Amino acid sequence: MKTVLASRASPRPESRGVLPLLVVVAALTLLASCKKEAPPTVAAAPEVTVMTVAQQDTPVDFEFTAQTQSSREVEIRSRVDGFLDKRMYTEGALVKTGQTMFQMDPKPFQAALQTAKGQLAQQQARLEVAKANLARVQPLAAQNALSKKDLDDAVGNEKQSAAAVFAAQGEVDTATLNLGYTTIKSPLDGLSSFARQQDGSYVTATANGGLLTYVYQLDPMWVNFSISENEMLKYRDDIAAGRLRFPENNNFSVHIILADGTPYSQQGQIDFANPAFNTETGTFLVRATFANPKNTLRPGQFVRARVSGAIRPNATLVPQRAVLQGAKSHFVWVVGNDRKAHQRVVEVGEWQGDNWFVSDGLKAGERIVVDGALRVTADSQLKIVKELPPVGKGSPAVATAASPSAAAAAPAAE
After folding, report:
1. Of 256, 273, 224, 218, which is closest to residue 66 (Cα–Cα)?
2. Res 41: pLDDT
3. Can you list the domains of the chain with their CATH numbers?
4. In this predicted structure, what is the pLDDT of residue 37?
């Protein structure tokens, strides 16, 4: 019985070869299906925006950081020694010409004036006596009733008395001036600073002890900026090479932008350029003057100054987004007549707002890719969806150079 069961459980020789055969057939079928290639797909042409390159005289503005300064910054000082009675102005307020700002104790100066007047009266009385004595001596000397010496003495006494009166009058004038100096007034319309001396302080008329406050004239206002020697020489070279042209007589116009981005309404003019370099900084000062009728500008503000009037002759200007950075240089995609993209190495210069000056590598009339340049490959077919006008022709141009130094170089360039 055990022998029969064992023989039934063992597989037959035919069934042992069927299963491997089915596995092989299934594998071959799967391999055949994988070898079927998908139909080739054609990549869609990238959609791009292009622009035709143009060369034209392009106005350029040079923007830089500047600082405002009062056109008249006056120190209010004490001219005499004494006690400060009272501050007569509101610190930080606008003051008018002739407005009283400080009052010093006048009593010692009033007493000094009174003494000087008394001495003047004494000398005037002595002069009257000397004159009367001379009037008596002269006829007697003429009759030889008195000696020549008596006449000379009388004349000398009269002249000495007159000189003493003159000196006494000077003492009175000095005392009067000193009394007037106890009332300290503003010499101009302007903005007052805080008081350096408080009420009751003893003030001396020395360089260190006589300063009371400052008054800053606000209209007109100066705007100062600096330029280095290297930068100035660079723009002089550009002018000599014909790459840059400044206005006649360096007649630039200047606008400023406040810290919050608000443009200042008034236009300024460059009126001064220091001919000497600062030996510490290697720069020289350039100054523009602005009208400030509403006192918008205050001394010491940091602003951005934009100087207009320079021109780059026959300049090529392209949008910044059209210029790409390669491994070794900048390049653009030039569109051929067959609408295929060709890479072109270019030499770029300064930024100008959203645009870039190209000094070499492009010719007028060529078309370049502006938008969609990142999707373009060499010799790829392009789908042009829009053509932009050249920069400066029918499109808004922002003329703000990236380098602020050229504006400062303007007054010094010949």
Report:
1. 224
2. 52
3. 49-60+313-388 (2.40.420.20), 62-69+219-309+403-412 (2.40.30.170), 107-181 (1.10.287)
4. 53
